[in-house]
Amino acid sequence: MQFYYGQQMPLRILDEVEFWKLQEEEHTVVIREALDHLEEEYVDALKKWEQALSETHQKAVSFVESVNRSHYVRKQLHNQVIQLVTYSLDESMKFIELCRQIKTHSSATKDRPIAKTILDHIIRESEYFIGIARTVLYSNNRS
Ligand SMILES: [Fe+2]
After folding, report:
1. I need a surface site. Which of 25, 53, 106, 135 has the fewest CB within 10 A?
2. Higher pLDDT, 122 or 66
């Protein structure tokens, strides 16, 4: 897969951030609704994550608007986009940590293969986004 976006880089990667952060936001709801008897600490953590991921999603949306308004992407905006991608990547890694914690320690996943399947699916999707973000950051460092 080729993720070097060249001139289109800011918009393409912002699209990815926007799409995947919304996915992760929705996944916090999926986990809460699909896992019966999930401990309160995890329910609370997931609600906070829903909020945090929604904020990152909104940031990407407003960046897309700024990019569309300016005829060319200024250096500063480019740097802000790179910062947002770095932040989003780190956020996804921490979100995966929470999902793994729930998978291993929550009694809501005990003897419930479907709960583990759902969490694995969600973890894989966040990992996919991390792969895209890493590639963008790596090619940015080299250019
Ligand atoms: Fe999904």
Report:
1. 135
2. 122
In whole numbers, what is the pLDDT of the chain averaged over residues?
90
The Cα–Cα gap between 66 and 78 comes to 11
Give residue 66 CA to ligand 1 midpoint distance, Å: 28
CA 20 to ligand 1 center in whole angstroms: 9
**How crowded is the C-beta side of 66, counted as CA atoms within 13 Å?**
16
Smallest CA-to-CA distance from 41 within 111, 107, 127 is with 107
Amino acid at 126: S
Q: Which amino acid is at 140?
A: N
The residues, ordered by sequence, that sit 6+ positions from 34 with a Cβ below 8 Å of its Cβ are 114, 115, 118
For residue 96, what pLDDT is reported? 98
Mean pLDDT lowest among 52-56, 68-72, 127-131: 68-72
The Cα–Cα gap between 113 and 43 comes to: 20
Q: Which domains does the chain have, with CATH numbers?
A: 6-142 (1.20.1260.120)
Ion ligand 1 — residues with CB under 5 Å? Answer: 125
Sign of the CA dihedral with 23 first, then 29, 32, and 33 last: negative
